[in-house]
Specification:
With 369 residues, the protein is an alpha/beta fold. 40% of the residues lie in helices and 17% in strands. It has three domains: 210 residues, 3-Layer(aba) Sandwich (Isopropylmalate Dehydrogenase); 94 residues, no CATH class; 35 residues, no CATH class. The chain has a ten-stranded mixed beta sheet with strand order 2-1-3-12-11-4-5-10-8-9, with helices on both faces. A two-stranded antiparallel ribbon has the order 6-7. α1 crosses α11, α1 runs parallel beside α12 and α6 crosses α7. 43% of the residues are buried.
């Protein structure tokens, strides 16, 4: 029996309530599984609640704990829109080179959805593409110089743009980062008994960026003769997922497309409230719910803990505790299917007075194990 180390980032808004619920479920899953290890937790703060005292939403000690432990479970953290600090998620991904965003999207009986039996995994490249944040504001000298260059090399004068009214964003796609994310997707497929990996792009238009992604993906795919590899244009892929999602298995995409398609796939299974996530690199792994911090519900013991608990299940798998992970997922599925001990958003009527709170749903999941 081994002892794993894990950081628990409690977050802000409803984050601390969700963190407590998920930790309770993880510890119970390990305790109830013969031969499973234990977790030595390092609980760390992050988010708006520590901004005033620490001067940053992500204190250095928290980052160092993430770096030093075997895995991290992170509760939601508020990201201000338009103002304030940059996303903590982006900071962690870039600081620790967590290059692979893993987003399984799976149907659970009892969750309201237009679809049944969905079982997709989205693998998103996390470090480059338009999300690298290399942008130039309209009207600035550097932007004007870039616009002048675009105008000089343009052979289609209909796209000539104004130096004063145009912003610019750079889309880097590299051989190295494409190769490792596509390889991650194929290795994940092989390790989890998946049969197909679809690599998604828009190479018919962006020939030197998405075209490179397609070319490298095809090269990597040729090494995995036991797994089917196929390409899809991103716009067509979105239509296909809505029409016939059962045809797809593992999807691997550049950063921007991956962000959009992963939310689309979450919508197929009932929304972000049941969508787990992970950000994984060679030297670290952070597991998190894919929804926000819902500050208006802070302290009300009301929000659905499913997404963070299923993220905890991914963390157990990452730590090599496959049996405990399955025990946890089976218990979550049983509680949801039962429909009794679930939060308000999982009831047919959101005003149902029998809805339970965050902690009570976690307790029901523990009991189901």
């Amino acid at each position: 029996m081994s002892t794993h180390t894990a950081t628990l980032i409690t977050g802000d808004g409803v984050g601390p309530e969700l963190a407590a619920a998920a930790r309770k479920c993880i510890d119970a899953a390990l305790a109830k599984t013969d031969g499973a290890g234990t977790i030595a937790w390092s609980e760390r703060p992050a988010g708006v609640d520590v901004m005033e005292s620490a001067g940053t939403p992500m204190p250095d000690e928290t980052i160092e704990s993430v770096r030093a432990t075997d895995a991290t479970l992170k509760a939601p953290i508020t990201t201000p829109i338009g103002t304030g600090f940059r996303s903590v998620n982006v900071l962690l991904r870039q600081t620790l080179d967590l290059y692979a965003c893993l987003r399984p999207c799976k149907s659970y009986a009892g969750v309201r959805s237009r679809y049944d039996n969905i079982d997709l995994v989205v693998v998103r490249e996390n470090t480059e593409d338009l999300y690298a944040g290399v942008e130039f504001e309209k009207g600035l000298p550097d932007t004007a110089e870039l616009i002048d260059h675009v105008n000089r090399i343009s052979t289609d004068k209909t796209i000539v743009t104004s130096r004063e009214t145009t912003g610019v964003s750079i889309k880097p796609i590299s051989v190295e980062n494409t190769e490792r994310i596509v390889r991650f997707a194929f290795e994940y497929a092989r390790a989890h008994g998946r049969k197909k990996v679809s690599y998604i792009h828009k190479a018919n238009i962006m020939k030197h960026t998405d075209g490179l992604f397609k070319e490298v993906a095809e090269s990597v795919a040729s090494e995995y003769t036991d797994i089917e590899g196929e390409e899809r244009l991103v716009d067509n892929m979105c239509m296909q997922l809505v029409q016939k999602p059962e045809l797809y298995d593992v999807l691997v995409l550049p950063n921007l497309y991956g962000d959009i398609v992963s939310d689309l796939c979450a919508g197929l299974v009932g929304g972000l409230g049941v969508a787990p996530g992970a950000n994984i690199g060679d030297n670290g792994a952070v597991f998190e719910a894919t929804h926000g911090s819902a500050p208006k519900y802070k302290g009300l013991n009301k929000v659905n803990p499913t997404a963070l608990i299923l993220s905890a299940k991914l963390m157990l798998e990452h730590l090599g505790e496959a049996e405990a992970a399955k025990r946890l997922e089976d218990a979550v599925a049983a509680v949801i299917a039962g429909g009794k001990d679930v939060t308000y958003d999982m009831k047919p009527d959101r005003d149902d007075p029998t809805a339970v709170g965050t902690d009570e749903m976690a307790q029901a999941i523990v009991a189901a194990m």
